[in-house]
User: What shape does this take?
Amino acid sequence: MPEHDTIASSPLAPAIRRPSADTSLDVALLQDPGDRLAPAADICRSPAFFRLHAASFNRAWYATALDASNGAVLATSWFAETAPGEARSGAHGPYGAYYTPFSPLPLSLATRLIAVTEAELRARDIRHLQITLPPAAHEEAAHAEWMNAYLRLGYRPSAPDLNFHVWVGDEPLASRMTGANRSIVKGADRLGMFARALRPNERADAYSVNVQNRTRLGRPMTMTLEALLELSTVIPGSVHWFGVFRGEEMIAASVCIRLSAEALYIFYLGEVDGVERLSPVTLLVAHIHDWCRDHGIALLDFGIASQSGVPNERKMSFKRSLGFDVSPKYTLAKGLDA
Assistant: This one.
């Protein structure tokens, strides 16, 4: 198939029938996708997110799987060439892989979709492919089936990262915490601490708090303040900022990304030097959970507690102590040489 630059499309509508196992399939690799291709996709796999980051790679394509009989969009993803002949889905953001509004797709159709995508990438001289799937908790119905399809097609998984999440309910997060953390939340007023959503003019201060925190821990920042503000402008409502104050001083701050209508991701979380004993981040996470409850968000994602699959026991213990559960996040790889 020749390289595609544009494609005519209309928004997915409820009237489009669910694809079947024998649905005819075409995959187009686009370089300038419109938002109408995947209006319900989560942020990581949306056309807008692709357009925001594609230029930072030598080559990148937005993959659109179509029902060849009627042009209906079945699934979307994007791939970036991270080194000559090597491509990745999930090269920017916490994950990649295919998004489908029909999740889960019939397994035989999903398997054909992966194989056809490989052929399109191979035709563009891609010889090694890496896919980072969403954490299992994000797509409970589809995760096992996608894994089945990828493994049967010869993909090899590396040790999964350990991703923490909590399902947001009516009860406050403090009810799931350990006793010590519950005491921090309940005693915050007595210590003069309170948490709230931040105003636009406080975002730079919140970013500085996280820079200070990461510098202390020896960890680099992965996004600049300017990049976060650009993301917020390009995809309105995608970035949310929260802070903890003691009097007028901001002593902890978080940057969260709304991955979808149903999921919020705690991207940065940190506190200033000298307040570790107070643990204002505990209060902050409890506040973010309650904010999710009040805004109809079902899943709060606290990110990974591992590095390339190697567990960070201290981070795991901390996240569990705040009431979060763990699920695997797999990265799979395959050589595409014929």
